[in-house]
Amino acid sequence: MPKLLVATFSADDKAFIEQAINAGVDVRVLNCFEETQAKLRAWYPNHCLNVPAHRSTVKEAVQLSGFDVAVIRATADDFVKSALLTQTLREARVNWVLVIAADPTRVSLYRRCGAHHVILESGAAEIWQEIAPFLSMHVTAS
């Protein structure tokens, strides 16, 4: 079963996460930012990766979990946080780091920070269509 980490979550991602869970993907939502902690615990009590928002603790927890794919929704208001998270997840040896970007001018920034693939923001169905092939390609060997 592929392991998927969803980071910098927004309410728009609920449909995408439900699709992944229904498809049998082992989904974890990175729960480290104060502004989303309560929502994530309420929405996904069994799917949260609860970690303090420090680079070293996030890196260690992600590395120990052995994720195949990570999806980062780049926040328009804090692209620096998204870029640092991209770099941290790449350093944590996630096999495939995907960034969903709202701003096409930031694509090269996320690539320089370690994103394997950057897609421009669209609806949940389009996101799932982009990500599903990567999940099947990057299944951890058992």
Automatic annotation (TrEMBL):
It comes from the Bacteria. InterPro entries: NAD(P)-bd_dom_sf. This is RCK N-terminal domain-containing protein.
